[in-house]
Design goal:
The protein is α+β, with helices and mostly antiparallel strands. The protein contains nine helices and 18 strands. It folds into two domains: 296 residues, Aminopeptidase (3-Layer(aba) Sandwich); 112 residues, 2-Layer Sandwich (Alpha-Beta Plaits), CATH 3.30.70.360. The strands form five sheets. Strands 1-2-6-3-7-18-8-17 form an eight-stranded mixed beta sheet, sandwiched between helices. A four-stranded antiparallel beta sheet has the order 12-14-10-15, covered by helices on one side. The two termini are 16 Å apart.
Length: 415
């Protein structure tokens, strides 16, 4: 079977599988779960994969994830496909008939949960790829490892990122994987478009929490206490100059963002503590280390200047993610065959982060975005990932499945 005929068969099988795939996507969409809480969705994915007689399924893997191996006709080579499937603590506002109404616990608080990053689409795409390739396994010159990864969107304190844990537990071993692919939904392109970064795709990340300890007092007599809210406000203002005055931006973009700040419960009580959560991003490892160091120093010194104490709790760290240039060049022809040359768009690196870097630091990786914007709307009205109104067009699923099938098949065939 040559590449063109394989492509045509995959195209037809993807169309035939589309109705089932859309139902799987909608089920996942209605059952979003937060990091390492993906019990229902992990079980749902694993139970479906077990119905495909060519797959060996390991579940649970890395707490709530799934690993499945599809044996090809030659097991001397293996390639992996990663699909994350955790959700976000965001209330969905799309008006879809299958919109999420789920709730969960995040940072000790009850919150709405939804798939506004599109990981339900990533998982449904990979389920479709497993379905199609299972029917064509005799055409595969090697094994395909499907990794349904939990906990990409940040993890509870003291826990490893989902990709990090998967690598630690042997996701890329037995069989030994020689390359890994990932596709992620992209809200500012229509279905049929694929976006490729030739080198760096994502910034390095450090999340941290600053806990400020003060002295409680009556709001009418602040001189009796030590105000952690005033100290926190001063810290936030001071942090804003690190990027603009200390980071070498010739090396690449950098950003420090305070995502939350809270303390106290009553208007006339100065609380004894306050807390803020930060995310630090940089497209240069030296800048990232500088930002972490300076945030920590400023938090400690400014707190002390206000008569308070600061404790720094380090959270998730994701290294910068880079596409392997040799793998990128090797698979470019496949991208153009499947999508068409005009639909392959070269994309600059983003200050977003990705724990896929834990995989691509072990073996050559290729991380791609695929267009998911609703075709019924202008692109200007397509809401970005993490927005309450983010949506995925159904047409994107079968295209992404077709692309994944051809990438995996052609990689094995070339090697």
């Amino acid at each position: 079977m040559d590449k063109k005929s394989f492509h045509d068969i995959v195209h037809q099988l993807s169309i035939e599988n589309a109705p089932k795939q859309i139902k799987q996507f909608q089920w996942l969409h209605q059952h979003p779960e937060l990091a390492y809480q993906e019990f229902e969705s992990g079980s749902y994915i694993a139970n479906y994969l077990k119905t495909l007689d060519g797959l060996e399924v390991i579940y649970p893997f890395a707490k709530t994830g799934v690993k499945a191996v599809l044996k090809g006709k030659n097991s001397e080579n293996a390639v992996a496909l990663r699909a994350d499937f955790d959700a976000l603590p965001v209330k969905e506002d799309t008006g879809l008939s299958y919109a999420s109404t789920s709730k969960g616990i995040y940072n000790g608080q009850e919150t709405y949960v939804s798939h506004v990053c599109g990981h339900d689409a990533s998982a449904a795409t990979a389920m479709g790829t497993a379905t199609v390739l299972n029917q064509l396994r005799n055409e595969l010159d090697g094994d395909v490892v499907f990794l349904f990864q939990p906990a990409e969107e940040g993890v509870p304190d003291g826990m490893k990122a989902g990709a990090d844990l998967m690598v630690q537990e042997g996701a890329l071993k037995n069989p030994d994987v020689t390359a890994i692919f990932a596709l992620h939904p992209y809200s500012k392109a229509y279905p049929g478009k694929v976006l490729l970064s030739k080198s760096t795709t994502h910034a390095g990340l450090n999340d941290l929490v600053i806990k400020i300890k003060g002295v409680q007092a009556h709001g009418s007599m602040p001189w009796v206490g030590r105000d952690p809210i005033v100290a926190g406000a001063a810290i936030i203002n001071s942090l804003q100059t690190i990027v603009s005055r200390e980071a070498d931006l010739m090396r690449g973009a950098a950003v420090v963002t305070v995502g939350y700040f809270h303390g106290g419960i009553k208007v006339n009580i100065i609380p004894d503590h306050a807390e803020m959560g930060l995310t630090i991003r940089a497209l240069d490892e030296k800048n990232l280390k500088l930002l972490v160091k300076r945030v920590t120093e400023i938090a400690m010194l400014v707190s002390k200047a206000h008569g308070c104490e600061a404790e720094i709790v380090m959270g998730q760290h994701d290294p910068m993610n880079k596409n392997d240039p040799v793998l990128c060049k090797k698979m470019l022809k496949t991208l153009k065959i499947v999508a068409g040359s005009d639909n392959v768009i070269f994309k600059p690196a983003t200050t977003g982060s990705e724990d896929f870097s834990y995989f691509s630091n072990e073996v050559p990786g290729l991380y791609l975005h695929f267009g998911t914007a609703p075709k019924t709307k202008p692109l200007s009205e397509s809401r970005p990932n993490h927005h309450p109104g983010f949506q995925v067009d159904d047409e994107a699923l079968k295209f992404a499945t077709k692309l994944e099938c051809c990438l995996l098949h052609n990689y094995l065939k070339q090697d």
